[in-house]
Each structure stands twice: as C-alpha cells, then as structure tokens.
C-alpha cells in the first residue's frame, strides 16, 4: 500500500495531535463523525465548522424533487453524531485558510464577525460551489433567472414554489446539463410536475454536447435516450450561452422559451482556496494523493468535490 506523504514533516498521530479541524460535513466527514462516536482518542480535540445543523444527502435530492421523499428524510442531523463523538461545532463558513500558519478564518452563520481557528490536522469536505462571479462570466443571466442545484439548501427552499406554480398552469422546464445530475433532475421534475401539476407541462434537457451521459458506456447512453424519449423529454444538444426572462439562449442563436431554467452544470472550487498556500489543480481544487492528503501540506486532507486526486482523473459529482 505504501505510506503517507513524508516529504513534509507530519505531526505524530496521537501524543502530538490535539486539534483536528473539520471544514464541512460532506460524506467523508459524516463517516468520520460516526467513527468518532465509536472511538474518540483521548488526546484529540475535534472541531467541526459547517453552517447547517443538518446535512442534506445529495444522492436523495432527485427523489425529493420527484416527491418521493420529504425534506426530513433526505437530511442527516449532525447534533447526535457530534454529541456522541464529543465534537465541538461552530455554525459558520470558512473564509480563508493560511496553511503555512495552520490557521483557518471563518465567519459565523448568524454574524459578520470573523473568527480564527488553529489546527494540527485539517480536513476539508465542504463540496464545490457555484461562484457568482464565475457563473456570470460563463453563463450570463443564469444567476438572476435560473434555479441552480447548488447550493442544495436554496434548491430545497425554492422547489415548492415551482410545484405550486405548476398547479396553476402548464410549465415549460429546461434543465441545462447533460451529465448524471441533469438527467436525474429532468426525470424527477417531469415525474413530480406531471403528477401534481396541471396537464401540459413540457420538459427539455439541454446537454451542451453531442452525448447524453458522456463518460458512460454506449449501451447506457442509448438506454438513457430511449428513456428520455419514452418520457416525452426533448433533448437539445446545443450549448446554453445565456439565460434571460424569456428563456434559454442556445449556441445556434435559437431561443428556447421556458418558465423554469434549472442549472445542473459543473461547479467551481471555493474562492477561499486561491490564497491558502495549498497545492491546487488547474481548476482550483485541493490537489491530493491517493490517501486524500494534500500534496503540499502533510497535515491537510481533502475529500469530495473540493479535492482532485493527482493519480486519478475522477469526475466531480456537482
């Protein structure tokens, strides 16, 4: 198996490590919290910084959109895990990492005041984001006129309004993004609005490329196309170039009129990584080895969409 990276001095794993700082409550950190509930080393002080008291399981969000689950069923309460694992919680968001000083700056969820937190070990599992300034440059009008899958909390807050509107008149929904998230979302939206809304709703998947489900085997892609056709979902392979109050502008100059544009596109690395001092990939994510350990700082780990492996080009889920 080999050993962890050793060219940067690592602190000893028990007697020297007192402060483990967790940023975010992603899937990897949820597993870690569960393990800490089973066994918490006596000399560890563990702190979690995350803005919400519950973590939404993203894999169940399409089922939530489809109306198969209630909101409470797709959320994992953090308090029982933190209490059982003796983990301290700061309700807030990271604003800066100073890797050279082993220090994180964060802001509370309910206050603009800045705080600092020192660490011996840092683990980052915050997920990726849609950065407003990047989104404005890549897809003009999207921030003002489209419903985005990220952040999930915003999607969950606004989706009931879409369902309520669908009960008053037929809606036209355009999901932008031909990956797994876009495909799941358009199927979920069609299931929910056709069941609970007035008849006549239309659904379009704007893939932005020749393939639906690019990266999957040909047989899977063909089956997806059959399922989309069978569900009466239109597939457009033109890229989306802009969104306004009329609908979605396509690369061929056409305008797809729609009531609800939904963004299921690639996400961005958090802006606070840029000046962290950590080694980053070309897209700004934390560069890690096969142990999810920073390639530049041995006391920093990262997992999920905020990280990129240096030995394996894996797709982001968001």
What's the topology here?
Layout: E1 19-23, H1 27-38, E2 45-50, E3 54-56, H2 61-65, E4 75-77, H3 79-84, E5 87-98, E6 103-108, E7 114-118, E8 121-124, H4 132-138, H5 142-145, E9 147-148, H6 152-166, E10 172-176, H7 180-196, E11 202-206, H8 218-230, E12 234-236, E13 240-244, E14 247-250, E15 255-257, E16 260-263, E17 286-288, E18 300-302, E19 307-309
Parallel strand pairs: 1-2, 1-8, 2-5, 8-18, 9-16, 10-11, 10-16, 11-12, 17-19
Antiparallel strand pairs: 3-4, 5-6, 6-7, 13-14, 14-15
Structure notes:
- The protein folds into two domains: 18-129 and 267-309, FAD/NAD(P)-binding domain, CATH 3.50.50.60; 132-263, FAD/NAD(P)-binding domain, CATH 3.50.50.60.
- The two termini are 30 Å apart.
- Residues 1-14 have low confidence and may be disordered.
- The chain is globular, with a radius of gyration of 21 Å.
- 38% of the residues are buried.
- It contains eight helices and 19 strands.
- The longest helix is centred in the middle third of the chain and has 17 residues, at 180-196.
- With 318 residues, it is an alpha/beta fold.
- The chain has a seven-stranded mixed sheet with strand order 7-6-5-2-1-8-18. Strands 9-16-10-11-12 form a five-stranded parallel sheet. A three-stranded antiparallel sheet has the order 13-14-15.
